[in-house]
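Posting for a labmate who doesn't have an account.
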Amino acid sequence: MSEVAQGKQPVVTPVRVVIALCLLAPFAAMLWVGSYARVEPTLAGIPFFYWYQMLWVVVSTALTMVAYKLFHREQRARAAARKAGGER
């Protein structure tokens, strides 16, 4: 029987895919060094190579926070669904 027929929730959901993308984006951006290994454009005299990496510190923090909030919202929804399914 399928998971839906048994009342189980799927492990891979669209929300979890978004969470994974939020967590993997900073790694992909930082591992692709060729995309930012240059001096121009400078920002307040700071070469692009450095300020791009510092920008990703802030972006990574925001993406991790989004992933955290999405995960906890999904966990609450799953717990509520389990509770509602168990009361029937």
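Reply:
Got it, the structure tokens are right above this. The chain is about 70% helix and 0% strand.
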